[in-house]
Design a protein that fits this description.
The chain has about 375 residues and is of the alpha+beta class. The chain contains nine helices and 21 strands. Strands 7-8-9-3-10-11 form a six-stranded mixed beta sheet. It has a five-stranded antiparallel beta sheet with strand order 2-1-4-5-6, with helices on one face. This is Molybdate transport system ATP-binding protein.
Length: about 375
């Protein structure tokens, strides 16, 4: 295992990826972002499947990509392992044969490769699958074997490309826990691409958020998800976010509305976001009066089950602010019935200023 240092520039006709990132030895770095943000392109460059137009990729002291110097180490020679959404096991090989394949390709003796494979299969709770071929395994079992196979060549860098996305809901929690245990025990440097805040929280030390091919947020996982600075991060963290600029009373929204909130210590006019949980949003059929300082007319766009509550998703109401699109409120099923809240209904969202946190904004607000 070794550290990663990368600056990746990839140009396409309608898109440019320009990302700098580092991962320390033994660190797990999560890369989050909406579809089209550049996550797959970044992973392709790190794996050696794509050549960057500019920049470099270094694993420890070894440069594996540098267009200016004419360096491009092919995938099978750069010490990178990959665990993708689909296990992609060799169908004609047993679990043992699949896991031993990588070490054997490196020139390791059959005996040593099979010994390493048995140890890894045991580590991923798949020892009893050693003699089975993929057709006789469940999806979760195949993914366990695929994890062992990815680790078997002892890669300097492990790439995890949404490794839980194809699993059913029953297999996902166990595989998530297994990934954390095995990757941590190996001290493995890894880059995890995921759409799941829970995957990032459980597996990653730090998070990088991409939007439009650029890094808009980065930092320790819990800090980034607790204090999101971009709409995408707020959505995956399950929070409401309003972009704008800092003002003395909180946040000045794009239409001039003031969103009252807790002082973030920001300079007036500085790009900022107001963040609050959907559970803090009260919903009324008529405009409320009294303590809430943030009262917003909205139209119900969607009604979604969300655990023990119902999540109302907002759209702009006629004559109301456009920036309420996508805001959410969590209320009880009884409250939904009492309000007569159905798609298209006009209601009022109210949030107390004490529930709204004002933070500095990320580099992008889309």
């Amino acid at each position: 295992m070794t550290a990663l240092d990368a600056h990746v520039v990839v140009r396409r006709s309608t898109f440019t990826l320009d990302v700098t990132l580092q991962a320390a030895t033994g660190e797990v770095l999560a890369v989050l972002g909406p579809n089209g943000a550049g996550k797959s392109t970044l992973l392709g460059v790190l794996a050696g499947l794509l050549r960057p137009d500019e920049g470099h990729v270094r694993l420890g002291d070894t440069t594996v990509a540098d267009p200016a110097a004419g360096v491009h180490v092919p995938p099978h020679q750069r010490g990178v392992g990959l665990l993708a959404q689909e296990p992609l096991l060799f169908p004609h090989l047993t679990a043992l044969g699949n896991v031993a394949f990588g070490p054997r390709a490196q020139g390791v003796s059959r005996r040593e490769a099979e010994l390493r494979a048995k140890e890894l299969l045991a580590a991923v709770d798949a020892g009893e699958l050693a003699d089975r071929r993929p057709a006789r395994m469940s999806g979760g079992q195949q993914q366990r074997v695929a994890l062992a196979r990815a680790l078997a060549p002892r890669p300097d860098l492990l790439l995890l490309d949404e490794p839980l996305a194809a699993l059913d809901v029953d297999a996902t929690p166990a595989m998530r826990s297994l990934l954390r245990r095995v990757v941590r025990a190996a001290g493995q440097t890894a880059v995890l691409v995921t759409h799941s805040a829970l995957d990032a929280l459980v597996l990653a030390d730090r998070v990088v958020v991409l939007t439009g091919g650029r890094v808009v947020e980065q930092g320790p996982t819990r800090e980034v998800l607790a204090r999101p600075r971009s709409p995408f991060t707020a959505r995956i963290a399950g929070l409401d976010l309003v972009p704008g600029t800092a003002c003395p009373d909180g946040l000045l929204a794009p239409d001039g509305t003031v969103v009252a909130g807790r002082d973030g210590g920001l300079v007036e006019g500085e790009p900022a976001v107001a963040v609050f949980p959907p559970s803090a949003v009260a919903v009324f059929a008529e405009r409320p009066h009294g303590s809430p300082r943030n009262v917003l007319p909205v139209q119900v766009a969607a009604i979604e089950p969300h655990g023990d509550v119902v999540r109302l998703r907002a759209a702009a109401a006629p004559g109301g602010p456009a920036w309420v699109d996508g805001l959410a409120a969590d209320i009880t099923p009884a409250a939904v019935a009492e309000l007569g809240a159905e798609p298209g209904a006009r209601v009022w969202f109210a949030v107390k200023a004490t529930e709204v946190a004002i933070h500095a904004a990320g580099d992008a607000t889309s």
